[in-house]
Amino acid sequence: MTIPFESSVTLTRSSAGAYVSGTWTPGATSTVSVNATVLPAKAHDVVARFGGTYTIGMAVILSHSAIIAADEEDQVVGDKFTFEGDTFEIVAVDRYTQVIPHYHGWAKIADDKEP
Length: 115
What we know:
The chain is mainly beta.
């Protein structure tokens, strides 16, 4: 079964970075193409998932293929993709295994400025 409205989405995937002799060295990047649906996130869903009231600049990505979220502790950059002219970084992923197995990712604008 497919996810409605899915199309090819190119993800930029980064391996973990590290400090080498006190200097930050970013991880290597590669591109991965997945079939996915990307939609603007609904404000009430963002509040329910993350709390607070800041809901601008969020998107949802649904895919059967694995997607990777940012992890500050392990110094992993989340998968990045372009949607409606903005670059988004996946910050959280929920994996569902029942009925329609898929990944539900939450992404925020990653342009280094406030939306």
